[in-house]
Amino acid sequence: MYAFDYRRPKTLDEAELALKVLPGAKLLAGGQTLIPTMKLRLNRPGGIVDLGSVSGLNGIERQDGMLMIGATATHADVATSPIVAAAIKGLAHVAGEIGDPQVRNRGTIGGSLANNDPAADYPAAVLSLRASLHTTQRVIAADDFFRGLYETALRPNEIITAVHFPVPERAAYEKFRQPASRFSIVGVMVAKTGAGARVAVTGAGSCVFRCKPLEAALTRKFAPESCDGILIEATGLNEDLHGSAEYRAHLIPILAKRAVARALG
Questions:
Q1: What are the percentages of helix, strand and coil residues in the chain, rounded to 5?
Q2: Helix/strand/coil (H, E, C) string of 162-213?
Q3: Cys bridge to 173: 51, 189, 224, 245, which one at CB 3.0-4.6 A?
Q4: How far apart (Å, rounded) are the C-alpha atoms in residues 41 and 58?
Q5: Domains of the chain by residue range
Q6: What is each CA distance from 221 to 140, 226, 227, 251, in whole angstroms?
Q7: In 3D, which of 47, 208, 56, 50 has the Cα closest to residue 125?
Q8: Is 54 left (phi over 0), alpha (psi -120 to 50) or beta?
């Protein structure tokens, strides 16, 4: 490791001030991405602002048809929360599929979303469930948040404070995982809402995206067989040693079909 300025604020105001006085500083939540990249010298921030002592950021509650999850709630918190299970069982399943026990007990929902790894699980849940991300500066709709490879709509010094999920009629997630990392080679989250079906895909492209052909088919009829015969264009999808673009395109409707079956229970 190398020398850097470390701050551990106790309030959001202190955290924002620390970011301003430490240009280029990085926020630390669970550290499950930042610390490994620092060890490999892929990330060398001159300052770290640790959110671990900021109170009120890890709560989970349900109010007025919304499920609210604080940004520093861990994946394990979400996976085991009876509030989450009662409101959006599929979201609890998403959290329980992330990484291994160490990652789930340290990694946070806010950190995962701010990082926007192309193979992360939470982005698919946030996008399909039409969530909104609350920050120290504004509220950002999920459809506007994810911009590209590791790119989001967050401004400099903007901190995610909570994620608000409308409670859907049904929702579920299925992924084909890379066996060592448990990241998604392809992951698909489906949600049935009063406004129709939403389908979000992670792992297949440079950034999470909605799959409009599957959304149209599932809006007409929310049933597993509606995914049959849907062809997904492979152009622009990821291609690596884990699978070709065509392979990933082939997996998307298969995983969507499984997710619908899971959602219908």
A1: 35, 25, 40
A2: EEEEECCCEEEEEEEECCCCCCEEEEEEEEEECCEEEEEEECCCCCCEECHH
A3: 189
A4: 30
A5: 5-53, 60-264
A6: 30, 7, 10, 20
A7: 208
A8: beta
> What is the tens place of the pLDDT at every residue in 82-129?
999 999 999 999 999 999 999 999 999 999 999 999 999 999 999 999
- Judge if 5-53 and 60-264 fold alike in CATH terms: no
> pLDDT by residue (tens digit) across 31-40?
999 999 999 8
CATH architecture of the domain 60-264 equals: 2-Layer Sandwich (3.30)
Q: What tens digit of pLDDT does each residue of 158-205 get?
A: 999 999 999 999 999 999 999 888 899 999 999 999 999 999 999 999
What is the number of residues in the chain?
265
8 A C-beta contact, residue 238 and residue 244: no
| Number of neighbouring beta carbons within 10 Å of residue 29 | 28
Helix or strand holding residue 216 (H, E)? helix 212-220
Tell me the pLDDT tens digit for each residue of 127-146: 999 999 999 999 999 999 99
Contact present, 10 and 53 (Cβ < 8 Å): yes
3-state SS, residue 61: strand
**Which pLDDT score, from 0 to 100, does residue 1 have?**
62
Contacts of 260 by beta carbon, 8 Å cutoff, 6+ apart: 172, 190, 218, 222, 223, 224, 226, 227
The CATH number assigned to the domain with range 5-53 reads 3.30.43.10
